[in-house]
Structures are given as structure tokens and as C-alpha cells.
Amino acid sequence: MATPWEQVLQQVPNLNNPQAPFSYGVTPEGGIVGYWDVAKIQMLGLGGASTFSKDYRIDVRPTADGEIESVEVGNESSGSIGASGGSFQKSTFKGKSTQKSFGFQAGVAGTSHGQATSAASWSFDTDQIKKPLFGFLEQHGWQEKKGFFGRLFS
Question: If we measure between CA atoms, which residue out of 19, 16, 21 comes closest to residue 125?
Fold first, then answer.
């Protein structure tokens, strides 16, 4: 039998690790949110300037006794300007995903998450934020709701 959802929500702050680049919280609607501000980089180089930003969020809510549903949202944007012109790209993802990515930027001067630097790197892996959360929920008897194909082949 699953631990009552209200009791699970009270224990969510225990998931937070000061060494982790992400955090968990409880939404006003009674869901659990995991948030990761992956990168916020601005660089100035000899030939121009560039920016890169990436964040990720996972929202979990109960759908039935012992059953949860999750939705992931990822945002990524990059831009650059130089002597030959400029460019800007933005992408958003909403659904379920498994991602691993990393990057590096260097310049004459810049910032990463507001801290001065001339070089910045980032790495991202959805398993890092999802495994502790889903492990915690499984310990309390909560399982992810199976989709159509999950129910068909189980």
C-alpha cells in the first residue's frame, strides 16, 4: 500500500542534496517538481559574443492511489553575434525524455550563472535528476502510470 501522498510531500525536502546541481520542491497544487538550471552562459570573444541557456523541469502528480504521472519540460536557447551577422535558436520539449548532453564555451570574458569566467562547461543527464525522485517514490509505494503500450505489453 502506498504512503499517503500528503506524507510523501512532507518528505520531499529530504531529497535535496546541496552537492547536486538540481533541487526538488512541492508545487502549490500538491505535485512534486524537480528543477535543474543547467547552463546560463554569456561569452565575449575577439570576433563577437554568444549566449547559451538550458533548463529542465520534471513535474510529478498522483493520478490514483499508488499511481503517478510525470511530465518533463526542457528549454534550450543559443545566440551569437559577430562581424558577419547574428543568429538565435530556441527549442522547447514537453513530454518524456532521456537525454545526455554537454558543452563548453570559451572567450576573452564572460559569465556562467552570473559568475565571471573566460571558460564555461556544462553537462546534463536526465537520469541524475529522475533516478533519486522515482526511487524515493517507489520506496513509498508509488509507481509511474503506464501508457497504452506499457499496459498492452505488461
Answer: 21
Q: What pLDDT does residue 149 have?
A: 52
Q: How far is CA 31 from CA 4, 24, 63, 69, 132, in A?
A: 13, 11, 11, 10, 16
Instruction: Return the C-alpha cell found at 108.
Output: 576573452
Q: Please list the rounded mean pLDDT of every run of 10 residues in the chain (154 residues).
A: 95 96 97 98 95 98 94 97 95 94 94 96 96 97 75 48
CA distances from 59 to 33, 69, 122, 136, 147 (A): 5, 8, 23, 14, 17
pTM > 0.85: yes or no: yes
The answer to whether 129 touches 22, Cβ cutoff 8 Å, is yes
Which of 61, 126, 121, 57 shows the shortest CA–CA distance to 97? 126
Specify which residues 93 forms β-bridges with.
74
Amino acid at 59: D
- Would you say 145 and 67 are in contact if contact means Cβ atoms under 8 Å apart? yes
CA distances from 128 to 11, 35, 84, 98, 112 (A): 19, 12, 39, 11, 21
Give the Cα separation of 145 and 137 in Å (integer).
12
Distance CA 99, CA 105 (A): 20
